[in-house]
C-alpha cells in the first residue's frame, strides 16, 4: 500500500475541536501514516500524542499554517475528499493502483477553490451530506484492508470481548516476576528469562522498537514451562498471559518465541490451538532471536544453537533461526552474537 498522509484544512479551533479530533483518530486507527493539521491547535496535538503513546504505533502528527504550500510541496498524488467530486465506485480503482505517496485532503465546513484545482483526484464518497470522518474512514478502509490488525506496542490494548470493556496492560517488571511466582516457575527458568529480557531490551532500543514490550515479553516468554517443558509451553504460556489480561503484544511474544517461530502446518501437526506462532512484530522477533543465544543464563552463538537443531534433524527450524538472526543483525548494524 502507498504511504498515506492526511491533511486536515480549514479547522476552526473554537468550533471544530471534537470533529477534527475524530478525523485525526480515524486517520490513525485506519492506517494512515500521519496527519498534518491546519491551522495548528495545541489541544488536539496533545490529545493525539497521548493516544499514540497509550495505544502505540508510529503515527506522525504535525501542523502548518500554510496548507496551500504544503500541497504544492507534496511529492506524490493528492486526493481531495468532497461530496462534489467524481463517484467513488468509478474513481477509486484508479487511486488504488497509485504507487506514489498519497496526500488525502479533508476539509472542514467549506474549502477554498484552490483545493479542487490542486488535487489530482476530487473524490466523492457518496453524493449525500455526511461527515468528513465517515468519508475518510471509507477511503482508508478500502485502501488498507488490513487496517484492523492495529498495533501491539502501546501501553494498553483493547481485548475483544462480547460482554464487557476489557483493556490489557503491560505489567511492570515486579508484576511479571510475581506472575512467575504465582505460576511456580522454576528459579533457573526465571533466571533464563531475565537474561533474555535484558538482551532483548538492549536490542529493542537499538532497533527503535518498544523496549518495554520486548523486556516484559522476554521476562515472561517461558512462563508456560511452569506447566510443561515441551514445545507446547509456547501456547500454554500464552493462555496463562491471557488469563492475567496481559498485553496482546506480550502474549504474541510468548506464543511465537520458540526458535524463530512455528509455522501453521507445524502447529497443526503438533496439536496446537489455532493461533499465530510465527513472530510478526519487531518485539517478538527480537525476543525469539535473543532466546536462541542463551542456554540457561549462559550465552551461546547462533552456530552452536543451529548445531543442536541439526542433531535433532530440525533442518527447517535451523534455517528460520539463521534467517531471523541475520535480520536482527542487519537491523542493529552488528552481528547479534557480538551485541
Number of strands: 10
Q: What do we call the CATH topology of the largest domain? A: Hypothetical protein af1432
Low-confidence stretches: none
SSE string: EHEHEHEHEHEHEEHHHHHHHEEHH
CATH architecture call of the largest domain: Orthogonal Bundle
Radius of gyration: 24 Å
Question: What is the first-to-last residue Cα distance?
Answer: 34 Å
The figure for the number of domains is 2
Structural class: alpha/beta
% residues in beta strands: 5-15%
Q: Tell me roughly what share of residues is in helical segments.
A: 40-55%
Largest sheet: 6 strands, parallel
Q: Can you list the strand order of the major beta sheet?
A: 3-2-1-5-4-6
Tally of helical runs: 15
CATH class of the largest domain: Mainly Alpha
Average pLDDT figure: 93
Can you tell me the overall shape? Answer: elongated
Structure overview:
With 339 residues, the chain is an alpha/beta fold. The chain has two domains: 4-149, 3-Layer(aba) Sandwich (Alpha/beta knot); 168-338, Hypothetical protein af1432 (Orthogonal Bundle). Helix content is 49%, strand content 13%. It contains 15 helices and ten strands. The chain has helices at 17-29, 42-55, 67-72, 88-96, 113-118, 132-143, 173-183, 187-207, 211-220, 233-243, 248-256, 264-270, 282-291, 302-311, 315-332, and strands at residues 4-9, 34-37, 60-63, 77-87, 102-107, 121-124, 156-158, 167-169, 294-295, 298-299. The strands form three sheets. The chain has a six-stranded parallel beta sheet. Strands 7-8 form a two-stranded antiparallel sheet. Strands 9-10 form a two-stranded antiparallel sheet. Helix 1 runs parallel beside helix 2 (42-55).
